[in-house]
Amino acid sequence: MDMPHPLARLARWCAAHPALTVAVHLALLLAAGVYAGQRLSQAEGPNGVALALFDNSPERVWGEGSEPLQQYHRFRDRFGADGIELIAVHAPDTLDVDDLDVLDRFADSLAEEPGWSAFWAGDLPYAPRERSDGSLAVFLETLDQDPGARRLLHAEDGGWTAGVLLVLAPEVTDDVSRRAIAPTIRSRWDEVAPPGWTMASAGTPSLFGALGSAVVDSMQVNLPVANGVVLLLAAWAFRRPWMVFAAMAALLQGEALVLAAFVGSGRSFNYVSCYMAICVVVVGFAANIHLFARYTELRRGKPHAQALAQAADGIAGPVTASLLTTSGAMLALAGAEQTAIVEFGAFSAGGIAAVLLCAFTLGPALLTLGGGPVAPTPRLPDPSAIGAWAWRNAGAVLTGTALAAALAGWGVSRLALGSSVEECFTADHPVTRSVQEVRARMGAFSNMEVVLSWPKGGAGDLVRTLRTVEDALVTGLTPERGPVQAGDVLSLAGAGRAFCLAPGTAFFCAPDGLPKPQHTARLMDRLQKRFGLSLVTVDEDGVHARVSVLLDLPEARASNDLAAQAEVIAREAAPDARIEVTGFGPLWSSLEEAIVDDLLRSFLWSAGVVAGLLLLLLRSVRLWAVALPANALPLLGVAGTGGAVLVFGGMHVNSTAAMVLTVTIGIIVDDTLFFLLGLKRRGDFSEAAVRDVLREVGPGIVLTSLCLGLGFATLGASSFVNAQVVGLASATVIAVALLGDLLVLPACVRVLAATQSPRSTP
Questions:
Q1: Per-residue pLDDT for 548 more than 50?
Q2: pTM of the predicted model, to two decimals?
Q3: SS3 per-residue string spanning 72-102
Q4: Is the pLDDT of residue 644 over 70?
C-alpha cells in the first residue's frame, strides 16, 4: 500500500490535534504582528510609516546599483532640486495690475511650504517693482522680447494665461511628499482664486505622486474586495458557515503571515510589488480550494474523518505539483535586475505556499472542531459533459484552435512596448484633466536635464556655450508631439538673456544681449537668490551646468530615444564637455523600459521552468505535448488581442501589463495537471475516462478558475489603468485557460488515444 503524501499526513495529524494546531497558528499570527509592528514603530518622521508601507521611489523599485540611478544621484548632489511643477493660471478677462497682485499672493503662498520655491513672470529681472498701468505695458513689451519667458505670461483669445514654475527641493520629493503636491497646490489656489479664474498643474513630481496614491488606493480598495469575492465564492460553493469559516481562516492566516514578513523585513509596496498581495489572496485560495471542494463531494456519504482523509490523500499530490509550477514561475523572477520584481516573485511564491500550508493544517483542524457539515452541501459545477463533447469533436476543436492561434499571432506582432505616466490614469481622472489643460495652455511640462561638465577653468565663455547648446536642442530635438520651443529650454544662458533685458544692466551685458564673461559669477549669484534653482555648480570635479528641457511627457521608449538624441546634440554643440542626460522623468522612462524588458526575459525563463516542471511531474513526453496547446493558447490569445486593441487605441504595453504573462503562466497549468494526472492514474484516455476524471476534478477546476478570474477582475474597477490591465488581462487569460482545459485538452487527449492502445500508459 502506498504511503500517504507528506501533505496528506500533515492534514491528518492536524485533524487529530485540532486545539494544538489552532494554538500554534494563533501564536504564529501574534509573532507576525509583533515582527511587522516593530518595523513600523521604528519609522522616523511624519512620513516614516507611510514610506514603510508604500514607496514608489526608483531606489525601492530598481535598487541602488543601476547607472541611470547613479547619474540621477550625481545630478541631485550637484544641483539640488530637480522637481519642477508647471502651474497654469487662466483668467478670461484683460490683464491688469490687480491681477499681478493675485499671482503674487498665490506664488508667495506656495513658497510658504517647506522646500517649495515659486517663480513666475513677476520675478523676472525686468518685472516692475512699482506697478502701474504704464509699467505693466512696458513689462509686457519687454516680455515679448524674451522667448524663454513667454510661457510665464501670455495673452490668449478671450483672456490670458500665467505660468507659475514650482521648484521642489530634494528633501520634499520623497514618495509620500509627492502625493501631497497636487492637493496642496489646489488648497493654496482656493485661498486666493478670483471668480472665473481656473488653475491646473502638471509635472513629474505630481504625476508620480498621483501614481503613488493610485498604488495606495489599489491596495486599500482592491485587496479587501478580492477577499470579499473569495468569501462570496466560498459561501456559494460550500454553503455551511463553518466550512466557509475554515476556508477563509486558512486564506487570511497565510495572507497575514506573508504580508507581515514582507513589511517586517524592511520592504515597501510599490507599483510592481503591490500585486503580490492580490496574487497571494487569489492564487493561494485557488490552490487550496481543491481540498475543500473534494472534501465537500466526499462528505455526502462518508463520516467527516474519512472524507477529510480521502480528500487530503487524493488532492495532496496534484496540489503540490501545481504549487511547484506556480512557485517555479514566480521564482524565475529572481533573475531580474529590478529589486521590486525579485521581491514580487519571491513573496508571491512564499505567500501562495503559506496559504496552501494553512489550508492543510488550520483547515482540517477547524473542520474537525466544527464537526464537518451536518448535511450534504449542494453539488458543485460538473463540466464532464463539455470535456466529453470536445473529445468526440476533436477535429473541429483543434481546427478552431489553430485559426485562433493564427489571429493571435498577428496581434502579438502589433504590440507596442513601453508607456508614459499619463497612460496610467483613466480619461476622466483629475490627473488626466490637469495634464490636458496644462498642455493646451502651456505646452511642455516634464523636464529632462542635460548636464555639461568641464574641468576647472575649461568651461570658457559658459553663457555663450550654453546658448549654443540651447539653440541646438531647440532645432535638433524631434519629440513626437511637436517641436521644442525656445521657452521649453532653461539654462544660465536663457536666464542671462532675461537679466540683460532689465533696466540698468547695460554695464554687465554685451551687444548680443548676453552677460559679459567676466560677470558670469555675479549673474549666477543673483539668479540663485532670485530663482531658487541652481543652474551652475563648481566643485572639486570642475564646472557643471544644467540645461533643463521641458517635454510633453513622451512615452518611455520615445523618452529614452530623446535622451540619447539630446546627448548627441549637446556633445556636438559643446565638444569639450562631458555630457550626461538625467532627471526624474528620464530616470522613470529608463526604469519602465528596463522593467518591461526584464519581465519579458523573466517570462521566457518562467516558460522554460514551467515547461520543465510539467515534464518532470507528468513523466511523459506525450502527455507533456498534449498539455502545451491548451496552455499556450490563453497566453498567445490574450497577448494578441491586447496587441490588436492597444495598437488601434494608440496605447502601449507597460511594465505591469508585461507582468501578466509571467504571473499567469504558472497558474494556468495547475488545472491541466489535475486533469492529466487523473488520466494517468487510470492509464485510460477514452471518452469515458475523460468524463470520469472531469467529474472528479472538474468542480475544483471550475471553482479555482472562478476564484482566479473574479479575484483578478476586481482590479478592473480601479482608476489606476495599470491595475485595470493586470486585472482584466489576467482574468481573461484564466477564462481562456478554462476553455482550453475543457475543450482543447480533451481534444488533444483524443489524438493521443488514437496513437496507442486504450489501457496503455504513456
A1: yes
A2: 0.84
A3: HHHHHHHHCCCEEEEEEEEECCCCCHHHHHH
A4: no
